[in-house]
Write a structure and sequence with these properties.
Elements lengths: L2 H27 L6 H8 L3 H7 L3 H5 L3 H13 L7 H15 L9 H8 L2 H26 L7 H25 L4 H17 L2 H4 L6
Helix pairs in contact: 1-2, 2-3, 5-8, 6-10, 8-9, 9-10
Protein name: TetR family transcriptional regulator
Keywords: DNA-binding, Transcription, Transcription regulation
GO molecular function: DNA-binding transcription factor activity; transcription cis-regulatory region binding
């Protein structure tokens, strides 16, 4: 590796260490009760190093937030020839259920409880859902060459994003009820089919590639 490559690898290693230690402390003590100083001590770095990598304390808990926010928009942008936005999003979500993907909500009981018990993280999660819906609206506008100000992409994104919110919350609900990931996937897969089918009459042909 080059010097630059080694430097970037070291930065990523440090970032991951800080994130892992923060998550461990959040799950053990609670998000609000854990301080940046405690995280820095656990990761054996300076407090300034923690805030340089993670400007907000919430960023430490939602380390994959960028992937989450961009996920629906990327699915629409990468849809197959002849595939509608609805079909692509349904296919991608069902694949995520089969993989038991944490980004879809399969985060495990300790992480799910951490979010549910923290008012700060619960609000932050709702904000991430909002950002994901906005990114989806932009992708739908691009996919349909919508005129500026056209409400259609935003309305479609609200409906499609709403189904994803419901399914994400359902996975969290079942996780907190003590169901394991394979059991949750067996329940949520058919429920997702049912939820997406409700949108077929209105959005079945929308944004077809």
């Amino acid at each position: 590796m080059t010097v630059t490559g080694l430097r970037e690898a070291k930065k990523q290693e440090t970032r991951q260490l800080i994130s892992d230690q923060a998550t461990r402390l959040f799950m053990a003590k609670g998000f609000e009760q854990t301080t940046i100083a405690e995280i820095a001590e656990a990761a054996r770095v300076a407090k300034k190093t923690v805030t340089n990598y993670f400007p907000r304390k919430e960023d430490l808990a939602f380390d994959h937030q960028d992937q989450f926010v961009a996920s629906l928009a990327r699915t629409v942008a990468a849809r197959e020839p002849g595939e509608s936005a609805l079909s692509a999003l349904r296919r991608d979500f069902l694949d995520a259920v089969e993989r038991q993907d944490p980004v879809a909500g399969f985060a495990g009981p300790e992480f799910s409880r951490m979010i549910a018990d923290s008012p700060t993280l619960s609000v932050c999660l709702r904000g991430l859902h909002d950002q994901r819906e906005e990114a989806l609206a932009a992708a739908l506008a691009a996919a349909t060459a919508a005129e500026p100000g056209d409400i259609t992409p935003r309305a479609a994104a609200a409906v499609l994003g709403g189904v994803h919110r419901v399914l994400f919350a359902r996975i969290q609900e079942l996780t907190l009820a003590g169901r394991d990931n394979p059991e949750i996937a067996a329940v949520v897969g058919p429920e997702a089919e049912q939820a997406f089918a409700l949108l077929e009459p209105s959005l079945g042909d929308y944004a077809r590639a």
